[in-house]
Amino acid sequence: MKKKIGILPGDGIGPEVVREGKKVLDTIAEKYGHTFEYETGDVGAVAIDNTGSPLPDETLAICENSDAFLFGAIGDPKYDNDPTAKVRPEQGLLKLRKSLGLYANIRPVTAYESLLHMSPLKKDRVIGADFVVYRELTGGIYFGEKGRTKEGAFDHCTYSIAEIERIAHLAFKAALNRKKQLTLIDKANVLETSRLWRETVGRMAHDYPEVVVENLFVDNAAMQMIQNPKQFDVILTENMFGDIISDEASVIGGSLGLLPSASIGNKTGMFEPIHGSYPQATGKNIANPIATILSVAMLLDHLDMIDEAIDVRQAVNYSLKMGMVTPDISADSGYGTDRVGDFIVNYLVEGEEEGTRENISLGLSTII
Ligand code: IPM
Ligand code: MG
Predict the structure, then answer these.
(1) Does the residue 1 lie in any domain?
(2) Which CATH number is 278's domain given?
(3) Non-local CB neighbours of 41 within 8 Å, separated by 6+ positions
(4) CA 233 to ligand 1 center in whole angstroms
(5) Is the confidence at residue 360, as pLDDT, over 60?
(6) Are the CB atoms for 93 and 32 separated by under 8 Å?
(7) Is 187 considered catalytic here?
(8) One domain, residues 81 and 142
(9) Where is the domain boundary, 239, 254, 277?
(10) 112 in a domain, yes or no?
(11) Ligand 1, atom 11: nearest CA belongs to which residue?
(12) In this structure, are 18 and 127 located in the same domain?
């Protein structure tokens, strides 16, 4: 297959991890006989520095013309202490989502058994947790009318039935392929938009009789996530609740550096590691590339390259099993971002073979 893939490295460790993701894409193309045409664009603080805009028109055009694009991270400490700055890196991300209609943010959370000692929760609470968050991404309070009055300020939260239905369909379908359980998180005891979510999802449930639908208020959900994360399968929620809940969810497995995400809509999709730009690690070759490589697996799924995606996930599992990981996972691992990427690529090329790890460590592999 021939596909157009946008590459948006962004800020901080973004370029380092995206480099590894692209290596994996190249390897998959070669192995399965695909042609990936890449175009690279600036986004975030680096784009502001280069062009004055966090999302230059050329970058938006690259994404619009792509079948999918890989996104690193955005954010730079120089903007952190000034939330009133007129131009900010985050504006690039929000504009990308809105302009491309990326209405569904999908974040799978997997508690890897070998990493449970890194979880902030007790091991027995987290072991076996495996769920996915479907967060609405282009509506709600993020994109409602906002402004100042003489007395104060306002941010309006609005949702249409159509906006709720399109993401709810995706979440129901995901549940059908999983444990057939959908939890809608809202604040229907207080908010009118939440009541609309509940009504709409409740009505749609008749079309998915195999799926068990549960409703949880967001405050209770935040607590349940800590008390018993294993109870969840597919979580569906609106934009702001999803922002908060998905960050909470991301740390319970102890493996922030491993979690990918997808933001999809009608055509192209954006695939990005959920960790941020991690400025302290920039340029040190210590950032974990696995979240980006697993985002590549989600990108391949989006392109209907299902076997290819499975292959990438297997390669990642093998690198975890062999302890070929960056220092965030194992303090004394001694392996850098590029070495972990090389190991995964090597597995894709040569499969499981005795001594692969040693060969990589010694720089003896044929692909480095
Ligand atoms: C996220 C981030 C963004 C959001 C910020 C950077 C605008 O927190 O992707 O979750 O709030 O959506
Ligand atoms: Mg967030």
Answers:
(1) yes
(2) 3.40.718.10
(3) 6, 7, 8, 56, 58, 59, 62, 63
(4) 23
(5) no
(6) no
(7) yes
(8) no
(9) 239
(10) no
(11) 243
(12) no
Domain co-membership, 73 together with 129: no
235 and 274 in a common domain:
no
Which residues lie below 8 Å from residue 268, measured CB to CB, with a gap of 6+?
A: 6, 63, 64, 66, 67, 68, 69, 100
Asked if residue 113 belongs to a domain, the reply is no
| Rounded Cα gap, residues 143 and 102, in angstroms | 13
Q: What's the mean per-residue pLDDT of the chain? A: 94
The tens digit of pLDDT for each residue in 253-294 reads: 888 899 999 999 999 999 999 999 999 999 999 999 999 999
Q: ∠191-129-300 over CA atoms, to 5°?
A: 90
Could you say which of 142, 208, 318, 335 is catalytic? 142
**249 within domain boundaries:** no
| Reported confidence tier of residue 365, pLDDT bands at 50, 70, 90 | very low
* Active site (annotated) includes residue 335: no
Is pTM beyond 0.90? Reply is yes
Domain of 139 in residue numbering reads as: 121-239
Which ligand sits nearest to residue 96's alpha carbon?
A: 1
Q: Structurally, how many domains does the chain consist of?
A: 2
Nearest residue (by CA) to ligand 1, atom 2, is: 243
Confidence of residue 364 (pLDDT cuts 50, 70, 90): very low
Give the residues surrounding ligand 1 with Cβ less than 6 Å away.
90, 93-94, 243
